[in-house]
Each structure stands twice: as structure tokens, then as C-alpha cells.
């Protein structure tokens, strides 16, 4: 580094006159801290400007100093002086200590604490606001959850109902299957006499055990005064095979009467309690064993 | 030198100032306020404003004295810079909108040059030395140092090439250094 060149570049003069950029300012300060000859030149130039400033001396208005002494904060030096200054206040608090303990705010401290006080309030207010907003948020969340819960409950109920229905179906299907699996069981379809609809009921008849099971597929429900009655046609004559109800969900009815022999099965609609002889005009379905 | 009327060294004064000792403030104020006030007055040219600027300057000095580092420069120079900058800021705020002084101000400055050479009694020897300074060079120092002009602004106002201004600034300070040479 050629310090002579640096000194003669004019940067030091610019520095002293205050026209350098902040970057140049740092550079000059760095250079002068490294090279004593740069420091010396800088000091000489500064001293020259100081001397120039001294030629401008004017006594300032006397109240300026008084104002500054009042406004600037001074530290009282020495621990003894501090003790003396604190002592009277200390005694006052001791006297008052029995009743209330108050913080020792001097007038200055109070004015200093004002912004802090206001800031505390600001913080408290914003916290309150945040809590309110959060509470509202939680409330709406709760409402949403309750709605979801009730709709879930509803669908759960639907599912339970469905499962119950399915289970009943399953039981009936199992029952039907069990009957069908039994060896010797014959399936006799009972078709409507007016032939409009097919397969209204099915009779599962086991010729070896004589057991008769009736499965109702789509018979319409009769009035309260009437009942369906099943007949077995044995040797051309109808024999009562028992009345049955069409209840909800009941599809397979096991008849108590057994037939070891039958040509056909028929269902008639009779008055409640059944009839000893079938009212042929009221025959709903008939199914031939032979076919 | 005037700075030698301190009862202790400048370093000790700075240390005491940094500890916010009132006694140190008295010494600092008594020692430097006349020169600072003179500089401020030269910049703002209004006693009322100069008074406010002096107050502001000392408030800034008091606030910033903890960060003053004697390794980076002389104390008086540091004080002068604070006072000068505060004064320049004050007139710029006053003529807000026109950061650069009008050409009539230049005339004022040049006029002022002739007036201010009445020496104050207490510093009788020094102004004579300043008078020995080449007037053109002195004007450049005043424009840059006291009125905060950039070199470009000086070149424009004095209708000189920028290079000439730079050379003149350097030779002006060198001349000043020789005049007050220690």
C-alpha cells in the first residue's frame, strides 16, 4: 500500500470536509487505524479545520447551558452521594411499609413508564381480542361437530336398520336353504289362478317326512276379517293344510299338518279362522305337484 | 492551544463524559460551545435558530458520546461534525423542498465572507491567519464544509469543472493546514 499516494489522493480532505460516502468513510477510518502516517495527516487536516472553527467562536446564549443541565440525564458519581440521595426516600417507605407498599416512582420514572403502561394495555387488549376470536372459532367448530355428529348418528341408525333387515333376510334365506337341503324336499310353485302374476308363493313339501313349508313371495295382505288357507289336494279332494298370516318379514311358514301324499297345493282366501271346505271361487293360487 | 485548559487529559474527559458525569459536561460545554455556536451561526445565519441547533447538538452529543471512539478521530472534530450536520439539517428543513440553496444565497455567502473578517477580541490572532487563505479556496471550504454542498453542486454554482473543484478543495485544506500548522 502506497500511503503517500493515498494521502495525496484527496480522500482525506474530503473526509475532513464531510463529503465522503459512508463506504469511503469506513475506508478512511480503517486506513488511518492501520497506517500511522495516514492517521497523522488526517489529524493535521482535522486540527486545521478545528483551528478554523475556533476563529468563528461566539459566546452562546447563557440559557442554553441551563436548559441542557435541566434536560440531560446525569449520573451522580460516587457511591456515597448515591446513598445520600436515596436515604430520605428509603425512610419514607419504611414509615409507610406498615400500611401499604408502593413502588418508588419518581416523577421521571412515571413519565418514562407511561408508554410501557400504554403498551401493556395494547397487549392486553389485543390478547383479549385474540381470545374472543378464538372462542368464536371454537364455537363454530363445535356447531359444525354437532351437526356432523347428528348426521352420523342418523346414518348409523339407517345402517343399523339395514343390518337388522339384512339379518332377518339372512335368517329366512338360511331357513329356506335348510329346507331345500333336506333330502326329498320338493319345490312346488303356486301360481295365480288368473295367471296375471307368476310365482306368488312356494311350497316346500317333503314327501318322506310329510313336512310342508310355505314361502310367501308376493301375496297381498288380506283384510282383518279374512285369512289365507292352504290346501293340499289329496286324491282329488282338498284337505285343510292350515291357515297362515302374512306378517311383516315372515316369509316362510311351517305348517303343522303333514302330508305323505298330495297331488297339488292351493291357497284360498277364507274368512278368519279358516273353513272346512275351500271356497273355490276364492282360490288365489294353485300348484301341481306333478308338474 | 486552547484545548489545553482541561484539568485532565482528553481521554479522561471522554471517559467521564461516557459515565455521564455532570462535572465533565460543564468542562465540555465551557470548552467547546463557543466554537460550536460560531460554526452553527455561520451555517444557519439566524441567532434564534442557532440557539435551537446548539441545544439539539448537545443533546445529540450527550446521546452519542458512549459510541465515540478516540481511535477513529479527534473529539473536537467529532463535536464539530455533529454541530455542523445538525445545523445543515436545520436549514434544509427550514427551506424544505429546496435542498440546494439558491444562487442568491451564494451571493450572501460571498458577502458574508467580507463581513466575518472582523476579528473577535478573544481570538484576535486566528482570523488574521484565515485571511491569509486564498479567497477562492476559502469559499470552496465554506461551501462544502459549512453549507453542505457536494463537489458537483460547487462546480455547478461556481461554474467550474468538477476536477478543478476537487483540486481546489484539496489545496484549500492543505493551505489551511500549513497556516495553522503545528
UniProtKB/TrEMBL annotation, chain A:
The chain crosses the membrane at residues 119-139. It comes from the Bacteria. Residues 123-279 form the Anti-sigma K factor RskA C-terminal domain. GO terms for biological process: regulation of translation. Pfam families: RskA_C. InterPro entries: Anti-sigma-K/W_factor (IPR051474), RskA_C (IPR018764). One of its GO terms (cellular component) is plasma membrane. The keyword Transmembrane applies. Keywords: Coiled coil, Membrane, Transmembrane, Transmembrane helix. Residues 142-169 form a coiled coil. GO terms for molecular function: sigma factor antagonist activity. This is Anti-sigma factor. It comes from Larkinella rosea.
UniProtKB/TrEMBL annotation, chain B:
Keywords: DNA-binding, Sigma factor, Transcription, Transcription regulation. Residues 28-94, 131-178 form the RNA polymerase sigma-70 region domain. One of its GO terms (molecular function) is sigma factor activity. Pfam families: Sigma70_r2, Sigma70_r4. It comes from the Bacteria. Belongs to the sigma-70 factor family. ECF subfamily. This is RNA polymerase sigma factor.
